[in-house]
């Protein structure tokens, strides 16, 4: 099962990232401005001081919410799904929910396999949380999905509360209920990941306007849950990632293929859910996307919190293909119409303004 991403080789593209292992890592060009500690340029900060927040929103794991809190979150997501798009980069995006997916599709090649991968997705999830609260009256916070609680358990992966049809996001796709339209390699679609339409839960009747991949199609929410990917999401995999000493090593290990020869926390989570969630471009079409990336953000924050010097540590290239420049704390995180475009330094400390949230 694949969550596809572009290689740092201009003449070659991967069409089946979650299925094909890459024997060698992406080549890291030797640069005059590269540091000698495993970084590809970048900053260690901290730069201008950001005001500490007087109050922090507490993001919690999905299964710790009571049924009313879960229902309120689901209702807010459904509100975005029924609200008109503002000014999406893809005109076929109909809803505000679609608009977030559309922007991810349009910018995906720039925000994966690059130094901005983690800060960009941090700002995207925060922008989504802001939309739920400011546009749909949601009083809660963005929950996260701690997959290690499911993958360390002896219970079936399908038994995860995230897939509950009544208090979760619905379960697996049903075989034979969805047929992929014709697609090219540029959509990075792994056909085996699309088992079928989700038949239960709060989103079983929702119609996506975009995807899979770069396709523009109206279709059901699809999944193809693959329990074999649970090995990439257990507590041992998390520890292997957070034990790494530099941001560049941590980010590469967390992001996964094609930089690493096997799945890791990021692509492993996408692959485990399958369907729309498995696609490099259009994965935000599944609402689980935001709980998955909130947990990746939580993992990054855990790593940052281990040493004061990590709070503003950033490195990596600004592009997945040449010509390369190095990410710095002043590099802008483009959000288009889904949120505020801010420099990386503004999102590094989640306990400082304008972020003001924490994980519990």
UniProtKB/TrEMBL annotation:
One of its GO terms (molecular function) is metal ion binding. PROSITE patterns: TYROSINASE_1 (PS00497), TYROSINASE_2 (PS00498). The keyword Metal-binding applies. Residues 1-23 form the signal peptide. Transmembrane segments: none annotated. SUPFAM superfamilies: Di-copper centre-containing domain. InterPro entries: Di-copper_centre_dom_sf, Tyrosinase/Hemocyanin, Tyrosinase_Cu-bd. Keywords: Copper, Metal-binding, Signal. The keyword Signal applies. Residues 112-129, 286-297 form the Tyrosinase copper-binding domain. This is Tyrosinase copper-binding domain-containing protein.
